[in-house]
């Protein structure tokens, strides 16, 4: 039964990937379209995150187009697969800018990709809207061409450290992925730790392919910590937790929002129960706000029954961008969208507040903690 369920979910993800790719390939219909470009992981270790985000965004753009578009023009989201490879993402971005004439880049996934993208934004004078990363590299120093919706890793890690401080937990271990994402996440942890006048008991690195898993587990076991914070994405997360649980029973794990995918939780199995994960978007599974109700309604119309945090993130990102495009007027370009975003101020998007200005391109600092239940669901 479990295998059949996994096969069904895999088939659904494959269909969604094919739908996104088909739309990207065939979406050259009208020169009057407003082209939005996205490079993300439709395959590879973070495929579920990329597919969910892109599907949520496309659902909203399609909904807007079905209502007549924006100022009489349709929005065309072109999504290219980079398999979470920064070099491929960079090549995709250049294709989207030079060949597809995108007026903005959207939902670019991952710290490595967004770091590599910085010089391109300058050269092409193009907007990067709602990058899917909490890294400071897209937040500091201030960059007029970058607008963030999701809270940064510093905000997420502060939420976790605040929780641990209240509980009186002092012996804290951190597992850091050996890439740009891991380094950025660790910087956030160190900042939050210093705020509470605490010190990390142990910091252990792990490769993205888990090739040094045994070494990482042994080092953390020797540190004798009370809790472990994972600054990891994809395979290393589940690999480490499962391997460490074989050595040490009853460990409490904390993870950032990049672990908030159903595939990640499914991969953990019984080892996922009790893992606490920070979130930067509203709980997408209960229709408690107008935004969540609209998200669920539009996704259901698309035939997507599995709601997700990355799905509602893509949906909200698209919703905010559409509002900026409306305010930009008929002659849409990056500079006009940037000006519209900076003039938006504090705006309520059906229960989710986004606040932009000329000096502030960080739209939200929303963060909360969720826990994985015995039946593999997220609970608030």
Topology:
Elements (H helix, E strand, L loop, with lengths): L1 H25 L7 E7 L6 H20 L8 E7 L4 H13 L5 E3 L4 H14 L2 E3 L16 E2 L5 H15 L4 E6 L2 H16 L6 E5 L6 H11 L3 E5 L3 H13 L4 E4 L6 H7 L7 E4 L10 H12 L7 H20 L5 H9 L2 E5 L2 E5 L11 E5 L5 E2 L1
Summarize this, please?
The chain has helices at residues 2-26, 47-66, 86-98, 111-124, 153-167, 180-195, 213-223, 235-247, 262-268, 290-301, 309-328, 334-342, and strands spanning 34-40, 75-81, 104-106, 127-129, 146-147, 172-177, 202-206, 227-231, 252-255, 276-279, 345-349, 352-356, 368-372, 378-379. By secondary structure, the chain is α/β, with parallel strands linked by helices.
Mean pLDDT: 91
State the secondary-structure class. alpha/beta
Total strands: the figure is: 14
Number of domains: 2
Rg, Cα atoms, Å: 20 Å
Q: Tell me, what is the CATH class of the largest domain?
A: Alpha Beta
CATH homologous superfamily placement of the largest domain: Response regulator
Second-tier CATH architecture of the largest domain: 3-Layer(aba) Sandwich
| Percent range of helical residues | 40-55%
Largest sheet: 7 strands, mixed
Order of helices and strands: HEHEHEHEEHEHEHEHEHEHHHEEEE
Shape: globular
CATH domain topology of the largest domain: Rossmann fold
Separation, N- and C-terminal Cα atoms: 28 Å
Strand content: 15-25%
Q: What topology, given as strand order, has the largest sheet?
A: 7-6-8-9-10-13-14
| Number of alpha- plus pi-helical segments | 12
The low-confidence parts are: 1-12
Description:
The chain is an alpha/beta fold and 380 residues long. It has two domains: 2-151 and 286-356, Response regulator (Rossmann fold); 153-279, Response regulator (Rossmann fold, 3-Layer(aba) Sandwich), CATH 3.40.50.2300. It is 46% helix and 17% strand. It is built from twelve helices and 14 strands. The chain has helices spanning 2-26, 47-66, 86-98, 111-124, 153-167, 180-195, 213-223, 235-247, 262-268, 290-301, 309-328, 334-342; strands at residues 34-40, 75-81, 104-106, 127-129, 146-147, 172-177, 202-206, 227-231, 252-255, 276-279, 345-349, 352-356, 368-372, 378-379. Helix 6 (180-195) links the parallel strand 6 (172-177) and strand 7. Helix 3 runs parallel beside helix 4, helix 7 crosses helix 8 and helix 11 (309-328) packs across helix 12 (334-342).
């Amino acid at each position: 039964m479990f295998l059949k369920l996994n096969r069904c979910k895999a088939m659904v993800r494959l269909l969604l990937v094919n739908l996104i790719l088909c739309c990207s390939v065939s979406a050259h219909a009208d020169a009057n379209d407003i082209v939005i470009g996205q490079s993300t992981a439709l395959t590879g270790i973070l495929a579920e995150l990329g597919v969910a985000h892109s599907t949520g965004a496309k659902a909203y753009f399609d909904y807007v187009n079905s209502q007549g578009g924006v100022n009489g023009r349709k929005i065309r989201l072109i999504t290219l697969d980079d398999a979470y490879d920064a070099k491929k993402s960079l090549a995709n971005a250049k294709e989207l800018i030079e060949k597809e004439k995108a007026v903005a880049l959207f939902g670019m996934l991952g710290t490595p990709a967004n770091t590599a993208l910085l010089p391109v934004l300058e050269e092409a004078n193009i907007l990067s809207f709602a990058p899917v990363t909490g890294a400071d590299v897209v937040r500091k120093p201030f960059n007029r061409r970058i607008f963030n919706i999701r809270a940064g890793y510093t905000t997420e890690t502060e939420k976790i450290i605040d929780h641990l401080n209240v509980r009186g937990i002092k012996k804290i271990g951190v597992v850091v992925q050996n890439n740009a994402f891991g380094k950025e996440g660790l910087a956030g942890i160190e900042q939050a730790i210093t705020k509470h006048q605490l010190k990390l008991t142990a910091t252990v690195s792990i490769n993205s392919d888990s090739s040094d898993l045994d070494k990482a587990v042994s080092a953390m076991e020797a540190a004798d910590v009370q809790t472990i914070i994972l600054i990891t994405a994809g395979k290393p997360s589940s690999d480490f937790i499962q391997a460490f649980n074989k050595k040490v029973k009853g460990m409490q794990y904390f993870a950032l929002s990049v672990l908030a995918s159903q595939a990640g939780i499914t991969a953990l199995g019984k080892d996922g129960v009790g893992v606490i994960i920070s979130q930067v978007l509203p709980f997408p599974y209960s229709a408690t706000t107008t935004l969540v109700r609209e998200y669920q309604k539009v996704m259901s119309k698309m035939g997507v029954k599995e709601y997700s945090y990355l799905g509602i993130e893509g949906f909200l990102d698209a919703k905010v961008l559409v509002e900026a495009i409306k305010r930009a007027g008929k002659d849409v370009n990056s500079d006009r969208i940037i000006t519209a975003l900076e003039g938006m101020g504090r705006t309520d998007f059906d229960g989710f507040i986004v606040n932009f200005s000329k000096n502030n391109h960080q739209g939200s600092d929303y963060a909360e903690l969720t826990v994985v239940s015995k039946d593999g669901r997220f609970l608030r």
